């Protein structure tokens, strides 16, 4: 590796980077990360950083976990691949599906596997259509989601995403995707409005929109229990209760996107439990394998699955298939990940150390550059005064901490295994950067 310092520029020419200014990237090249251990990563120049974002909200067990590497190694030698088509199966996927069903936060009867969160979200949308066709309501085709929601970047997932960067110049969203007000009380509440009145107003607006579109045309509402990439937004406690009643009233399916929140992040195994959601379909990914290998899962409730199965019997086949659905190596790694969460009692750990992160950041609310601090479990956002996000993230990185600027909100989503001492170190580094801002 004699020419290691030329790697960033070589990389700048060869790889297309998401959420990156591609013109700027061609000039500055990439920061190349070489290795990781626990919550720490090291770049090619030997600089250490705390990985305050778990990569992209995903490396929940931190870096260098030998058990996960061994699970992959063993399964690759035993049975590296087998498809699930035409009644075939293998033990890792059977065990993983049963394990996930036993953990589900609402009654679920089947699991569809894919490789990424976006794919599973697209599959959820397709299953909603398939379901409504099966029960004789083929006009139910439209989807609702929130402005600023992030549901992924395949075509349906990007259409559900309520952010212009996923749409502009990409010819998205597709028709039939409806975005509603973000349930962010401190930002979208009106002067003098209580939290309860705010929720009532938003729900009344959604009801109006449902009636304007025709309830017989709305297939499903997609929600993130806690909105992550939209800037760490925790909806008011009453909001989802009222929303669920509305969806029941108009016979609209609820899909919970737990790609970030599943497996302990919010202080419960699932964000649906934290936010008292009872989804018809639930998507998880990321922490399912602690990001050691791509795998995502779509949980399907019995009331949705039964008509799907019946219709596929009538058609002679269920026409959804993906080469890597339920990949044995990914399934084995996911199973081992779930074993480790159980052994570490990861949910209890998050409940113990989460307040250290969120309360530590809340102490910065009096800082002149800080507007608001939000968070739950090991997920937090520090909203800065206008136009400071990018500059702050850069200074934070200079202090040896990797965070993400979402507009003016600095997001924190450290590996779930982070210790209290490491959180103190993270807070010290962030405070130092904030004081330099
Ligand atoms: C809530 C949510 N849903 C879906 C996705 C898409 O997952 P993926 O990037 O694995 O396709 C993400 C990715 O960050 C996400 O945060």
Question: How are the secondary structure elements laid out?
Answer:
Elements: H1 7-14, H2 22-28, E1 33-37, E2 40-43, E3 48-51, H3 54-57, H4 66-79, H5 91-103, E4 110-114, H6 117-134, E5 142-146, H7 155-160, E6 177-180, H8 185-188, H9 195-213, E7 218-223, H10 237-249, E8 253-257, H11 271-274, E9 281-284, E10 296-300, H12 302-315, H13 328-344, H14 346-362, E11 370-376, E12 379-384, H15 389-398, E13 401-402, E14 404-406, E15 409-412, H16 420-436
Parallel strand pairs: 3-13, 5-6, 5-7, 7-8, 8-9
Antiparallel strand pairs: 1-2, 2-3, 4-10, 9-10, 11-12, 12-15, 14-15
Helix pairs in contact: 1-2, 4-13, 5-13, 6-12, 9-10, 14-16, 15-16
The structure holds pyridoxal-5'-phosphate.
Pyridoxal-5'-phosphate (PLP) binds at residues 56-57, 116-118, 121, 150-152, 224, 228-229, 257, 259-260, 285.
Structure description:
- A seven-stranded mixed beta sheet has the order 4-10-9-8-7-5-6, sandwiched between helices. A four-stranded mixed beta sheet has the order 1-2-3-13. Strands 11-12-15-14 form a four-stranded antiparallel beta sheet, with helices on one face.
- The radius of gyration is 22 Å and the shape is globular.
- The two termini are 37 Å apart.
- The protein has helices at residues 7-14, 22-28, 54-57, 66-79, 91-103, 117-134, 155-160, 185-188, 195-213, 237-249, 271-274, 302-315, 328-344, 346-362, 389-398, 420-436, and strands spanning 33-37, 40-43, 48-51, 110-114, 142-146, 177-180, 218-223, 253-257, 281-284, 296-300, 370-376, 379-384, 401-402, 404-406, 409-412.
- It folds into two domains: 31-64 and 345-436, Alpha-Beta Complex (Aspartate Aminotransferase, domain 1); 68-344, Type I PLP-dependent aspartate aminotransferase-like (Major domain) (Aspartate Aminotransferase, domain 2), CATH 3.40.640.10.
- The longest helix has 19 residues, at 195-213.
- The chain is an alpha/beta fold and 437 residues long.
- The mean pLDDT is 96.
- Helix 4 (66-79) packs antiparallel against helix 13 (328-344) and helix 9 packs parallel to helix 10 (237-249).
- Bound molecules: pyridoxal-5'-phosphate.
